[in-house]
Amino acid sequence: MHGVRKWQSELSHEILAAIIDSAPTANVMVDGEGRIVLANAEAERMFRYPREEMMGLGIEQLVPERFRDLHRIHRTGYLVQPLARGMGQGRDLYGLRRDGSEFPIEIGLNPVETQEGPFVLSAIVDITERKEIENRFRLAVEAAPVAILMVDAAGRIALANPESARLFGFSVSELIGQPLDMLVPDAQRGQHPALRQGFIANPASRRMGGGRVLHALRKDNSEVPVAIGLAPLNTPEGQLVLSVIVDISERVAAEEKQRALNEELERRVGERTAELAQAIEALTESNVELQQFAYVASHDLQTPLRGIAGCAQILESQYSDAVDEAGRDIIRRMVQSTVHLQALIRDLLAYSRIENRERPFMPVDLNAVLTESLALLDASIIESHATVTHDPLPTVIGDRTQLVQLFSNVIGNAVKYHGDALPVVHVWATPEEADTWRISIRDNGIGIAAEHLERVFEVFTRLHSHKAYPGTGIGLAVCRRVVGRHNGRIWVDSVPGEGSTFHFTLGVPASTPAQPESEKST
Amino acid sequence: MIPVTSTSDPETPDPLILLIDDNEVDQFLTRRAFAQSGFRVRLETVDDGDQALKFLRRQPPFESAPVPHLVLLDINMPRMGGKDVLRAMKSDETLRRIPVVALTTSQSDRDKQEMYDLRANSYIIKPVDFNAFVEIVRSLCQYWFRTVTLPPN
Asked: Per the CB < 8 Å rule, is B76 touching A299?
């Protein structure tokens, strides 16, 4: 006490005591012999001594027994070379309470020159709480199911958890203190220090490698794909980097498998595309064939038609007086037929360009279509003394001109291909599904042999000599394309010698389900 | 409405037309259409391109053939087609001046383009309807023999 008064010659004892007492850290001053000459309230509280007991107490009494000898040596050394510094940097220090319990501390030292020689003022902080937090953090790291490494600023492994040991194939003790680079494959080792320095210069939690797959090197020299997360960690031991390393070999394998699957898929798509391209090429060829046909038709069919039509018109306009009424009727029919033929050729040309110039589908009354078709076939019906009957027909959705083509082609065939008996043709409709009608056209003609049932719908297929049954061989091909364009089907049943029945399906307009005529409300 | 006379000057001979068409019925109908048009024309006909060039060049058997005022040219003909005839005429110093009207049933865009590229003076699609054809012949005569001044012979 005597020394303090001397040291503090200018301040009053009361003021000094008040200042030191109010300090939030424990303050203890010792003389050259290591005796406590000053202790503040916080020091009393921390070490649980009454002040009067503390005064004159050897400082080593506040140090756990096992450290006392070492402490004494350090204290003596400090007096020889007294510098303000933290005590025991890098080592754990403990305080000893009066009741014998220990607690972790941090100490700051300051030399004080007095008339009685060098004193040392120490500020002591109880770091129990911080140690506990650190401990909990360590426990969490230990127990973490992912590999965690802590790396110091020099690039050495400061902490490794068991999972990281498992991942890298080392033991934990083999990792601690070692340079991190031993876990980096050769290929990446060159860039790693720069990356690490970059992170320390600008520390922020982030994913390492910008999403690229990184590789880590194992003890057995094998490499494992990993994802690495980095976080800066400020500790009393300096700036550390916490890195969390996840083994992503399964994910990489899954991605590899996925990529292989994708490649396989792409290859197959490529194959199919090539096949499609070939099919399209074939289709284009057949389309070109059809257009060539249309071109030929426009000239070679129209030329004789013009001849007939022209002559018939001249006959009608200038020579009608030369014949009687029956003759004039025939001339009139002739002119009409040429007009019909002209329309057919025109429609055939339009049909050949069907892909480009589709007419919109409308509700079409098949009764009207049938009437129109029969008018077109008037001449051949009269000539062959054919009888065409029909049940009431429904309204369907479609292209009226094409449906007339369809009906007149099928009925025209029915009338044309007759045997010895006079042709008898019947047309009726049956509901096939809620939205579909099946139209059937039955004749009593020569029929079609079973092996030709499919072929008749192919373009330019002719089963008979021109002399027996003249024709172009396109009629039923046109039918098939018309029905196909209406999303329907066309087929034929036939018994050679007894007759054929052609069937095709057509869709109904929206809101009028197909049902038999007798079931319709009137 | 049918003009009674073809020319105002009785001294001027009727215009001469060379019809090049391989189809006999077409030749007949064209002749008939001109007759019905009311215009008086002289209509010479040849059956194909080969004969047409012989006629125009006065080669045997057409040594005394007159120079036509107008050529009506079908496109689709056996052996030498209409395009070959047109090409030959338009590359001939004297024949190139004779107006050539394509008279065809072809509605193909390619034919139209090629014929005009070869310097056809008009392209007429023959209608199937005869009365319509007569009307076309009438307006053709009106244009080439009443409206237009033809090159001097």
From this structure: yes
